[in-house]
Design goal:
binds coenzyme A, seven-stranded mixed beta sheet, 4 helices
């Protein structure tokens, strides 16, 4: 039994733990150093009025994953474009939790008047590519060898959804 709701300040220990799994053990996230709950909470809080973050929780209220939106680029004309991301607890991947969470984030972005969502995916990441394409995102380009992690180069693909 799980549910979706907007992220709250008390969720960030769990959000940081999920994020740090991908930072420290994979090239899915291009960070090298673990992030703290306070750092992530500050990012969320600074942008809260504009960019939604949602969490999936279980019946006991435990955070199972989160989907976030944020600035794509800072200049004024980019105001209606947002970069989105989604991370589930590793043991819960592949069970269909991602789509409803990401769909709810996209619905919230639509209701806030955003025009375009961009997902940047460090490649390879078959599950994320599949999720984005299932929700209507279209591949719009790839930056070859955009990041170097664990002694190898990774391309960064961009997928876009016009929210219309
Ligand atoms: C990406 C992620 C959010 C997808 O959510 P999920 O609940 O695991 O996805 P689902 O179980 O609904 O699977 C999505 C699709 O990908 C497919 N898929 C899942 N794992 C796969 C894999 N390892 N290889 C190929 N396809 C895969 C599923 O079959 C499904 O396809 P379908 O729509 O045809 O049924 C989740 O796996 C995750 O958090 N991964 C780690 C973090 C991450 O990669 N975040 C995205 C950063 S860009």
């Amino acid at each position: 039994m799980s549910g979706l709701r907007p992220a709250a300040a008390g969720d960030f220990d769990a959000i940081a733990a999920i994020t740090n799994h991908y930072i420290t053990t994979t090239a899915i996230h291009f960070g090298y150093e673990p992030v703290t709950a306070d750092e992530l909470r500050a990012v969320w809080q600074d942008q809260l009025a504009v960019y939604p973050w949602l969490v999936t929780v279980d019946a006991a209220g435990r955070v199972l994953g989160y989907a976030k939106s944020g600035s794509y680029r800072a200049r004024a004309a980019y105001r209606w474009t947002t970069e989105t991301g989604i991370y589930l607890a590793p043991e819960l991947c592949g069970r269909g939790l991602g789509a409803p969470l990401y769909r709810a984030l996209l619905d919230e972005l639509r209701s806030r008047g955003f025009h375009s969502a961009i997902g940047g995916i460090a490649l390879p990441n078959a599950a994320s590519v599949r999720l984005h394409e299932r929700l209507g995102f279209v591949h719009v380009g790839t930056i070859a060898q955009a990041g170097r992690k664990f002694d190898r180069w990774h391309d960064l693909g961009f997928w876009q959804l016009l929210l219309g």
